[in-house]
Amino acid sequence: MSNADLDAGTPLSLASVGLSGVIVRVDGTRAPGMLEPEELERRLLEMGFVEGARVRVLHQGLLGGDPIAVKVDDMRVALRRSEARAIEVNFD
Asked: For each successive 10 residues of the chain (92 residues), what is the average pLDDT?
């Protein structure tokens, strides 16, 4: 998916390798799963996924593109695409 295909506030889970942007919101309710929305949101915030942070998709897994490795400011983090749905990004 190219930058032109992504709207403002697009979930990080839809980004392909090489895309980058700025985090505009973290919302645990957008990523239903094993964790409660509040717990997922807390964990993501603790890892540095905060409003205004720069994020870039570095790598993705071979099977189904999961997990993804992203750079958040100066830190590298791996997360599931299902978790990345909670992170909204304005891509460059």
From this structure: 61 94 94 89 95 96 90 94 95 92
